[in-house]
Here is the input.
Amino acid sequence: MSRHDLGNHPWSHRALTGLTAAEIDAELRRTDDLIDRVTGERPRCLRPRGGEVTPQILTAASAFGYDVVLWSIQVPAGTRAADPVQYVLDHLHPGAIVLAHDPGIRTAGGPDGLTRLIRGARALGYVFSTVSELVSAGNPVQGDAL
Here is the structure.
């Protein structure tokens, strides 16, 4: 699939928890404006750092029209999975969102970790879709962090 959803991952990468509403707005707006200038599209979703979600963050996300997107699978922190790619493949399920930027996929998974993950998921019969497609299909977009 050649289509991608653009998302906001706040400007300074500070945790949004503990920030004032105005500070949260500034973090989101600065990123939102840059993405719009570069791509001509506004982000559709927000993934707060570390999956941290509070009512204040949800209110800000709603004001920007974002879906808050977390994940349902990641290589557990501090775990030395023998093969992190296989760990993810073993835990895949319909509608899963994989947090694949963790060091487990990039380092222990080897330089081809993401390629192995994509090929492995396809071999299991999974197809890839955008977050917007998951939401419109009625799949909840949630994560372990909640």
Q: What stands out?
A: The two ends are 29 Å apart (CA to CA).
